[in-house]
What we know:
The structure is a single chain. By secondary structure, the chain is of the alpha+beta class. The chain has three helices and two strands. Strands 1-2 form a two-stranded antiparallel sheet. It is flat, with a radius of gyration of 22 Å. The chain starts with a strand and ends in an 8-residue tail after the last helix. It is 57% helix and 13% strand. The longest helix has 24 residues, at 46-69.
Amino acid sequence: MYKRQGERSARDERSVEVRLTEEGTALRTRALQVPRRIAGATGFDTTEVRALRARLDELTSALDAAALSESPGEGRV
């Protein structure tokens, strides 16, 4: 069930040393492949992905700013 294990440090019992279980390590390996698989599915190269991410961040910021500048109830559908 758990993807990590922990036990008290022999040097300092206030610390807990945590490490992944075998299942957690396998899950981490699969998770590390996700960005590459997404990039492969889109056909975008790294530069295009970064540019898209930057534009999406700009869009998010603009929408957040617009939402904050609206009066309560204004502009709602």
